[in-house]
């Protein structure tokens, strides 16, 4: 089972044991009033989570490894 945590100045996301991504995001209050900023922030985190999933699937011996591979 692999668990990874990544932290920056504004967010943290983790891959849990069931394959779900939990996102906790600390944003300035004006992001709530600005849909474009909020959308960009969410897409940034989703793309980061996607890279984490791809990397964990590629690791030898990881859960995502194909049999015989």
Molecular structure report:
The chain is an alpha+beta fold and 69 residues long. The protein has one domain. It is built from two helices and three strands. It has helices at 30-33, 35-58, and strands at 5-7, 11-15, 21-25. The chain has a three-stranded antiparallel sheet with strand order 1-2-3, covered by helices on one side. The chain is elongated. Residues 64-69 have low confidence and may be disordered.
Quickly describe the structure.
With 69 residues, the chain is of the alpha+beta class. The protein is built from 2 helices and 3 strands, in the order βββαα.
Secondary structure topology:
Elements: E1 5-7, E2 11-15, E3 21-25, H1 30-33, H2 35-58
Antiparallel strand pairs: 1-2, 2-3
Distance between the termini: 18 Å
Structural class: alpha+beta
Major sheet description: 3 strands, antiparallel
Q: What's the gyration radius in Å?
A: 15 Å
Low-confidence parts, pLDDT < 50 over ≥5 residues?
A: 64-69
